[in-house]
Amino acid sequence: MADAEAAPAQYKQPSRKGKKAWRKNVDVTQIQSGLKEVREQIIQGGVVAEKPSDQLFAVDTIGSADIQKEVARRHKPLKVDEILAQRSAVPAVDSRKRLADLDSEGKRKKAKVSGKEYDRLRAIAYGGEQVQKDVVQTGSAEYDPWAVQEVKDDPKFSFLEKKKLKVEPSTLKRAPISMARDGKIIPAVRKPAAGKSYNPDFQAWQELLTREADKAVEAEKKRLQEAREEAERMERAAVESESDSGEESVWESEWEGFSDNENSELKKKRPERKTPAQRNKIKRRKDAERLATHEAKVKAKDQQVQKIKELAKSVAEKEKARATAKEILAKMDKANEPLSDDDGEEEELRRRTLGKAPIPDAMLEVVLPDELRDSLRLLKPEGNLLKDRFRSMILRGKVEPRKQIGEGKKRKYTVSEKWSYKDWELNKK
């Protein structure tokens, strides 16, 4: 049918000079297909080539939701970007001065609020007179947070456990206990030794360096002695374990040929009557044991009496030290000058501290010969004021020494890039 509608044509014409190569024999298939396509476009709404660009194309300003979701899943945004992306719906305060907000002198006009509006806002803010009566005036100096407050029991909640009243701790009114062994009051900020300076005097620096070196040598000797004693103890334990195993093997070899049946068949001998000499010996032994028990009780009683005397003596010394501390505090308050040590040496501390944790050692503040600098530009600051202040509060008895709590182990994450070009399968047909 398509061949009948098409015009006769000769597709391969070597020349068009003759009568046979006129219009009736020219190929017009391409022209007819173009006209047909134009007619179809007119039916559908117009020729595409004649339409403007805004009717043919559209600009996608939103983007694909699926692609955005996939990108957000693969590349999670940073927390700083999330914070910066948050924008308040409230517009910012305009800081520009407008003519309407200025008075005749050029100053900014104050916001005017009517008296009625002011009273309404005040009632909302403070809740009126009834709320003001119920509010406790905690700002005054007469307010005592440890005072006993009357609590009215509600019969509806009688089955609940009653709340315990606040009780003032007994140590609240006591003066802090100094951690020094002699009970001397330690100043909050001590005057450091002259040898700890970044540009110290040679004599003071030499004395400080020698003193700290002697301390380090003594600590190392003590550590080596403890390690030696531990090694000897382990050797003795190993020798004792070997000897015990040898004795057990000998005992097993001696009793190897005997059995329990043979032991049960042995006849037991009848116990003989004790002689007078044996009875006298037993009596003397019992008397000696009785006398030793009596002497031990008397000795324990004497020790308790001695301990009571020592406790009374220590209590008297504590009272005396406390009175001395109060006198020193009074003198310090009067003079308003902190105490300071000229030599800068550490005080000998008490054996028993406030808490279970030991008092941290002071930081080693000694400048070695190769660390001395002759210029402030080459100076390297050292020390930690926070640690110094915390240790000072511990020595003065303000706070208890505590162990540092380390951070827990965090979960480890392994980040790897997925190779998408490897995810393919061979289609077998």
TrEMBL record:
Residues 1-23, 220-305, 332-354 are annotated as: Disordered. The keyword Nucleus applies. Residues 241-263 have a biased composition (Acidic residues). It comes from the Eukaryota. The keyword Ligase does not apply. InterPro entries: Nop53/GLTSCR2. One of its GO terms (molecular function) is 5S rRNA binding. One of its GO terms (biological process) is ribosomal large subunit assembly. Residues 220-239, 286-305 have a biased composition (Basic and acidic residues). Keywords: Nucleus, Ribosome biogenesis. It is found in: Nucleus, Nucleolus; Nucleus, Nucleoplasm. Residues 14-23 have a biased composition (Basic residues). Transmembrane segments: none annotated. GO terms for cellular component: nucleolus; nucleoplasm. Belongs to the NOP53 family. May play a role in ribosome biogenesis. This is Ribosome biogenesis protein NOP53. The lineage of its organism: Eukaryota, Fungi, Dikarya, Ascomycota, Pezizomycotina.
